[in-house]
Amino acid sequence: MKILILGAKGNLGVQLMKVFANGNEVIGWDRSEIDITDRELILKKVDDLKPDVIINAAAYNAVDKCEDNDEEYELAKKLNIDGPKFLAEAALNVKAILIHYSSDYVFSGNKEDGYCEDDAPDPINRYGKTKFFGEKKIIELSGKGLKWYLIRTSKLFGPKGESEVSKDSFFDVMLKLSKEKDEINVVDGEKSCFTYTPDLALATRRLVESDRGYGIYHIINSNTCTWYEAVKELFKIKNIQIKVKSIKSEQLDRPAKRPKNSTLLNIKFDQLRSWQEALKEFLK
Ligand SMILES: NC(=O)c1ccc[n+]([C@@H]2O[C@H](COP(=O)([O-])OP(=O)(O)OC[C@H]3O[C@@H](n4cnc5c(N)ncnc54)[C@H](OP(=O)(O)O)[C@@H]3O)[C@@H](O)[C@H]2O)c1
User: Fold this and answer.
1) How confident is the model at residue 166, as a pLDDT?
2) Which end of the chain is more exposed for a tag (fewer CB within 10 A), N or C?
3) 154: CB partners within 8 A, 6+ apart
């Protein structure tokens, strides 16, 4: 198959390039090759290439930056709403399958026992709203025959991408802090599932090669936890003896509200291994 990957230098994009390489013709584009907010360019370049599958791993992910800065919010809307819409139109034109990633932040987190694929999104911050509206743009083109997979995921961690916008994973940040401080404060809340980018990339390949129906999928590593529980596990594995103090979400003065429990439930796809197992591999 001819596979086009957007955001190819991002944290997830780099892993997708690796996983799809074997047995496929893979083309990776990042912002330097194409700006996904440029509709004419997207339609032309995709029509020239005629891929069988388009995977969009490009996105605006700065949750707090767009919450209290209108210019950043405009950029987030362009990247997370217009970008997926233009890619969906381009995919439809060349009869390609479109795979797009969304986030647990499309949900408010007010539901006690987590969210399954069919639950109605109700975002509580601007980033979440842009990811939700991006989802809707893709689903709207189903009626015109678009073949699509929408994969919601959460709390990505793994080898850092080659992109300047790619964030260090939570675990990298905590390991760095553990070398600088004797005590760190970590939120014991905001429950959701950590997801190892190599596992998510592999699961994406298995999904597109399976005969499962098009639609929304929740793909995350198993077991939900808070940030505090995650760092305790990290320091246990790494045998790091520093004091970890649990704090409330509100004590971290961040512009964007976070869902209390945005655990994604994977009802439709194979269960992935636990984040604890994936973390052990990552740290090795
Ligand atoms: N990170 C998480 O914890 C998390 C959680 C839930 C869902 N997700 C979703 O998972 C997907 C992958 O996230 P990630 O963490 O791998 O992202 P990332 O590392 O931040 O990478 C984003 C990529 O998008 C590219 N990009 C930015 N603006 C662009 C533009 N105008 N045109 C084309 N490409 C552009 C960047 O390219 P440059 O290198 O050129 O800037 C970068 O390679 C996204 O849909 C994200 O919303 C992530």
Assistant:
1) 78
2) C
3) 103, 104, 105, 192, 193, 194, 195, 220, 262, 264
pLDDT of residue 191: 98
Q: Domain of 45?
A: 2-157+195-218
174 and 119: one domain? no
Shared domain for 80 and 151, answered yes or no, is: yes
- Six-digit token pair at 84? 């997926």
The answer to whether residue 163 is domain-embedded is no
Q: Say what the pLDDT of residue 220 is.
A: 98
Does ligand 1 have an atom closer than 6 angstroms to the CB of 192?
A: no
pTM above 0.85, yes or no: yes
Q: Which residues of 91-112 are buried (b: 16+ CB within 10 A; e: fewer)?
A: bbebebbbbbbbbbbbbbbebe
Active site residues: 127
Distance CA 66, CA 173 (A): 21
- On the question of pLDDT at 98 being above 90, the answer is yes
Does residue 99 line the site of ligand 1, with CB under 6 A? no
Q: Whose CA is nearest to atom 34 of ligand 1?
A: 31
